Structures are given as C-alpha cells and as structure tokens.
Amino acid sequence: MKDLETLMPQFVGDNMEIVINSEISEENQIHILVTHDECTFYANDSCSSVWAPLGIQLLHKKGMGKALMVLKFLTEICGHFTITLTEINELNLPPTFLQKAIPIFEATHPNCIGVFAFDNSTNHSAFAVMHYVLKI
C-alpha cells in the first residue's frame, strides 16, 4: 500500500481543496483509494433498558429480527460513490449499471486505477491471509 500511496493524489489546505500529484508522471496512472463502509439495521433494535412499573417484566423478542445492510463506497475525491441520473444519460449507460461499483468508478474516474479497500472484520469471516487485489 505504501508504494501505491505515491501514485495517489494528496489533499492539503484548511478544506483539503489543494491536490498534489508529486510522484505521478505520464507513464503512471493516478490511483484512487476507494473504501467500503457498511452498517446493519435490525427490525428489533431496541434499548436494553426501559421504564416500567415496579414488578412488571416486559417481554422482549428473542432475536434481532430481519436485517437491512446499507453499504457505500467512498473516495477522497468525490465522497460518497454515486453517479447522477444526468451522468447516466450522458454516458448512455444501461440500467443494470447502477448495481456495479467498478463500472461506476470507471465512468467517474476515467484513466485512473481504483484501489478498493474492504474491511477485514472477523464478522465477515475474513482474515489478513485472505485478500484480493483488484486492478481495473
């Protein structure tokens, strides 16, 4: 990753508005770090404590219920990894395009290489020895 950082744009300034591409030459393509963030919401997400009259025990559901996972891809350049309907129409992209992160990256960052970093949480049964290197 340290080697790839020299090929990534650096942002400086109070609002991170200044971009420095010090090591990037015409032979090397700019590499953009794309991170992955997720959150899971459960139907039975509830407080562990409640107000109730003395002597009354509330019945709680046993499980957490159905889950909804929300995930996003983020970059330093454009923040949330999205593409607008105007961009979809301008680029004549098929409707299934909206479900694919790599084609969105290619459309929003032409002539760049995406460095996708996924979390390595043990909740996902992923460990450091298991990793993928994606080159676009």
What is the averaged pLDDT score?
Answer: 71
- Helix-strand pattern: HEEEEEHHE
Q: What is the number of strand segments?
A: 6
Strand neighbour order, sheet with most strands: 5-4-3-6
How much strand? 25-35%
Distance between the termini: 16 Å
What would the principal axes of the Cα set say about the shape?
Answer: elongated
Which structural class should the secondary elements be placed in? alpha+beta
Main sheet attributes: strand count, strand direction, barrel closure: 4 strands, mixed
Keywords: Endonuclease, Hydrolase, Nuclease
GO molecular function, one term: endonuclease activity
Protein name: Dde family endonuclease
Question: Secondary structure elements and their pairing?
Answer:
Blueprint: H1 2-5, E1 10-12, E2 18-20, E3 30-42, E4 67-75, E5 79-80, H2 85-90, H3 101-108, E6 112-117
Parallel strand pairs: 3-6
Antiparallel strand pairs: 1-2, 3-4, 4-5
Characteristic terms for this protein:
6 strands; 136 residues; two-stranded antiparallel ribbon; single chain; 13% helix; 3 helices; endonuclease activity; four-stranded mixed sheet; alpha+beta
